Amino acid sequence: MTHSFLYIYDPLCGWCYGTTPRLADLAKDYEVEMLPAGLFSGAGARPLDHSFASYAWASDQKIARLTGQTFSRAYQSQILNGERQTLDSTFATLAMTACSIVEPARGPEALKLIQDARYVEGKDITDLSILLDLLSGAGFVDAATLLQDHMTSVEAETSQRVAYGQVV
């Protein structure tokens, strides 16, 4: 009997980031199907105002205590307290879909890459150009090319994955 896990996530979800090391551990021994929830994309996207940033930082500190994950000062200052930031996981979710299409077994690695860029390095992963550079620089060149050259097909696949992730 083969065991598999269904992991529903959003790249901007702090709790999802908190579980990233466990996800990597599971993926070593089991098949992990990753589905985006669309929590902070589409209708869930919003400006990252001071009130939500304060709420997020308090939650992030709890997540850090419980999981050992790092929420850096760079993230706090450049993302949560940055100017004109948005809470919109659309491009990060599209990047994850591109990775899932090209190299599905590397999904946990791709999610870790994207989330570490935000929560540790303080990079704005709501910016498509940053995501493309990030993917290319980490060996996800085919996924970056797919995302850049075939955005419409990646968007269609992402919509199907989000819809499925919201009903399972």
Description:
It is a single chain. With 168 residues, this protein is mainly α. The protein has one domain (4-167): 3-Layer(aba) Sandwich (Glutaredoxin), CATH 3.40.30.10. 61% of the residues lie in helices and 10% in strands. It contains nine helices and four strands, in the order βααββααβααααα. It has helices spanning 14-18, 20-29, 50-67, 73-80, 90-102, 107-119, 128-137, 141-149, 151-167, and strands at 4-9, 31-36, 46-47, 86-87. The protein has a two-stranded parallel ribbon with strand order 1-2. A two-stranded antiparallel ribbon has the order 3-4. α2 (20-29) packs antiparallel against α6 (107-119). The radius of gyration is 15 Å and the shape is globular.
What's the short version?
The chain has 168 residues and is mostly helical. The chain has helices at residues 14-18, 20-29, 50-67, 73-80, 90-102, 107-119, 128-137, 141-149, 151-167; strands at 4-9, 31-36, 46-47, 86-87. Strands 1-2 form a two-stranded parallel sheet. It has a two-stranded antiparallel sheet with strand order 3-4.
List keywords for this structure.
two-stranded parallel sheet, Glutaredoxin, 10% strand, two-stranded antiparallel sheet, mainly alpha, 61% helix, 168 residues
Briefly, what CATH class? Alpha Beta
CATH superfamily: Glutaredoxin
Give the averaged pLDDT, no decimals.
Answer: 94
**Count the helices. How many?**
9
Q: Provide the domain count.
A: 1
Strand content: 5-15%
Under CATH, the topology can be stated as Glutaredoxin
Give the C-alpha Rg. Answer: 15 Å
Number of strands: 4
- The unreliable regions are none
Instruction: For the record, give the distance between the C-alpha atoms at the N and C termini, rounded to a whole number.
Output: 22 Å
Shape, principal axes of CA atoms: globular
